[in-house]
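Progress note, sequence design subtask.
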C-alpha cells in the first residue's frame, strides 16, 4: 500500500475509532452535499460533517479551516457593506430632517 493512501493515526487513536468517525462524518457530510440540491439545511450538515471528520483527519481540518476563513471573509464583506449603507442612509436622513426643520422654522416666522 502506498504512503499516500495510509491513514496517519493519532498516538492514542485506535483504528476502530477512526473508522467510526470516518463513517459518521462521511454520512453527515454526504447528506449535507445532497441537501445542496434538494431542500434541507445543508449549511448545518456540511460543517457538522467536517467537524466530526476533523477530530481524526488532517485533510478535514484543512478543509474546515479553509471554509472558516472563507466564511469570515464573506461575513466581513457583508458587515462592511451594511455599515456603509447604514451610514449613508443615516446621513441622508439627517440632511432631510435638517432641511425640514429649516422649512418649518421659515413657515413659523
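Output:
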Amino acid at each position: 500500500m502506498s504512503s499516500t493512501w495510509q491513514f496517519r493515526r493519532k498516538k492514542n487513536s485506535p483504528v476502530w475509532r477512526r473508522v467510526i468517525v470516518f463513517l459518521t462524518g462521511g454520512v453527515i457530510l454526504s447528506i449535507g452535499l445532497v441537501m445542496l440540491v434538494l431542500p434541507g439545511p445543508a449549511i448545518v450538515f456540511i460543517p457538522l460533517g467536517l467537524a466530526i471528520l476533523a477530530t481524526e483527519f488532517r485533510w478535514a481540518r484543512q478543509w474546515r479551516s479553509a471554509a472558516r476563513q472563507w466564511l469570515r471573509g464573506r461575513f466581513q464583506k457583508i458587515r462592511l457593506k451594511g455599515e456603509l449603507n447604514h451610514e449613508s442612509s443615516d446621513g441622508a436622513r439627517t440632511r432631510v430632517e435638517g432641511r425640514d426643520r429649516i422649512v418649518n422654522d421659515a413657515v413659523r416666522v
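Residues 1-7, 90-101 have pLDDT under 50 and may be disordered. Work on this subtask will continue into the next period as scheduled.
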